[in-house]
């Protein structure tokens, strides 16, 4: 398996790419999106003492990501968590579970599990810090080129593929 990752400048372009990937037969268990949450995530049970501070993991389904726009409806497993050094992020797809276990290692730590070298993971963290949206697609070797083209054709920059393991 390989991991293809690309950076989008806005959620509309990322949403269009995800729709195209879904139309090409890629499932929600293959596609993930990560975005920095600019205060748009709502925790439905906040009135019972919930708190988004610290490194609390709220990937239990009680959150939705406004930062992801329509992407949340296209992918399963939407969750939010706070990553030290980045702040609150929202993730949709299988990566949400991977990142919830890697809070102390940040996004770069979670991406290492997918075969992305640490230095590239740190570069992707920087993209997140500056408002970029990461699309992460775990797929077979024979589909890497197709995924890369869809991401690039929809405005993704810094598109790369890496060998890795399943989510």
Summarize the structure in words.
With 167 residues, the chain is α+β, with helices and mostly antiparallel strands. It has one domain (2-44, 52-161). 31% of the residues lie in helices and 26% in strands. It is built from six helices and nine strands; from the N terminus they run βαββββαββαααβαβ. The chain has helices at 11-23, 71-74, 95-100, 106-112, 118-129, 144-153; strands at residues 2-8, 31-36, 42-43, 57-58, 63-64, 79-83, 87-92, 133-139, 157-163. The strands form two sheets. Strands 4-6-7-2-8-1-9 form a seven-stranded antiparallel beta sheet, with helices on both faces. Strands 3-5 form a two-stranded antiparallel ribbon. A hairpin with a 3-residue loop joins β6 (79-83) and β7 (87-92). α1 packs antiparallel against α6 (144-153) and α4 (106-112) crosses α5 (118-129). The termini are close together. The model is unreliable at 40-65 (pLDDT under 50).
